[in-house]
Amino acid sequence: MNYIFYLLIIFSIIIGAINGKLQDVVNAIMDGADLSVKVAFSLIGIMAFWLGIMRIAEKSGIIDWISKILKPITKVLFNEIPPESPAIGDIAMNFTANAFGLSNAATPFGIKAMEELQTENKNKKSASNSMCMFLGMNTAGFQLIPTTVLAVLVGIGYKNPTEIIAPTLLVTTIAFVSAIVLSKLFEKLWKPQLQDNIQGGNER
Amino acid sequence: MNNILNYLSLWALPALLLLILTAGIIKKVPIYEEFTSGAKDGFKIAINIIPYLIAIIVGISMLRASGAIEIMANIFAPILLKFNIPADILPLTIVRSLSGSAALGVFSDIANSLGPDNYATKLAAIMVGSSETTFYVLAVYFGAVKIAKIRYALIVGLLADLIGIIAAIFVCQWMFA
User: Fold this and answer.
1) Are residues A51 and A19 part of one domain?
2) ipTM, interface predicted TM-score of the complex
3) Dihedral, CA atoms, B70, A156, B124, B65, nearest 10 degrees?
4) Residues 53-82 of A with CB under 8 A from B
5) What is the spatial distance between Cα A17 and Cα B91, in angstroms, rounded to a whole number?
6) Is the confidence at residue B1, as pLDDT, over 60?
7) Domain check: are A74 and A174 in the same one?
């Protein structure tokens, strides 16, 4: 992450200077920082609501029940966490919410899942295989109906906007499966650091 | 088919709430107390992710302001044009991994300026609809658990995005060209 952060900023400044857009780049710092806080604050209410509901789901045994049903799949995808871990239920809730386009509900479920995965993680600063797998699956953004896109198409008078649902679903499935396969592949090539490297020689 | 999907989307949340709350009552869970104690974490988590969001969102805002995305789009242009990809799509292929609101903005632009019958509008719709903002997801999810060493997570996310772009191009050509 150190290099990514460094490259993002250095690259922006150099390119901005070449393009004569340095002032815009400087203004973007303020705007970006402001936006970050707004995004975080706008999450508070809906996050609190769904975390509250999640707690009830946990205490009433629903999460355990979902975990049990999904055991055959999750045993393969998240092989380093125990199959009875509540993380599995949280992950399932996250995907259900994402699939139906409820990203407001999906985010708290996903964060909850990450926290559960973190309790199983050996090095708390370095992402575990399961965490990378879960993140990869989420970045692929599997969704049954692209509601916002449909809204835009309806807005411009697209005659048959629903014709894009099937191709979008096909593409998102391909990306989703690729993310899973790639995560499994990289997991073998890129072993986790079990010890925290204080010198930071090998950091990403 | 579409009606069924819309119906499912509409009922997904209410059904989930009904199921969870009813199960709680049946199992004699003190649902009000559990709800409020669970909800307490919402504030904490949102505050915890702020530093991670700032690092990523500021970095990406700077990158967008610098004009680097147009330059990258121009570099990739010859490759994409070989496959009959409309030039308007180019910025979208890069921006969709970086910023969700920007991707939606670019898509609205394309849709509004080229109109509903244009091939680029269809391709853009599929590209935006089939992706999630990789950098945002990374910042929020890893930020919430204070992970700094992300290992291969970003590479996998971006490769999957790339595969998604290629898939979108082929699927769109196959269905609409």
Assistant:
1) yes
2) 0.84
3) 20
4) 53-57, 59-62
5) 20
6) no
7) yes
Domain that holds residue A103: 61-194
**Domain-embedded: residue A199:** no
* Contact residues, A window 18-37, toward B, CB-based 8 Å cutoff: 19, 21, 24-25, 27-29, 31-33, 35-37
Which of A69, A32, A85, A142 lies closest to B139 in space, CA to CA? A32
Domains of chain B by residue range = 41-176
Which chain B residues are Cβ-neighbours of A179 within 8 angstroms?
156-157, 160
Tell me which residues of chain A have a pLDDT lower than 70. Answer: 192-204
Regarding whether A146 and A101 lie in a shared domain, the answer is yes
Which residues in chain A are contacts of B53 at CB distance < 8 A? 36-37, 39-40
- Beta-carbon separation of A29 and B23 below 8 A: no
Q: Do A131 and B61 touch (CB under 8 A)?
A: no
If we measure between CA atoms, which residue out of A41, A36, A47, A44 comes closest to residue A109?
A47
pLDDT one-digit tens code per residue, B137-163: 999 999 999 998 899 999 999 999 999
Condensed to tens digits (0 to 9), the pLDDT of residues A136-189 reads 999 988 888 787 888 888 888 888 888 888 899 999 999 999 999 999 999 888
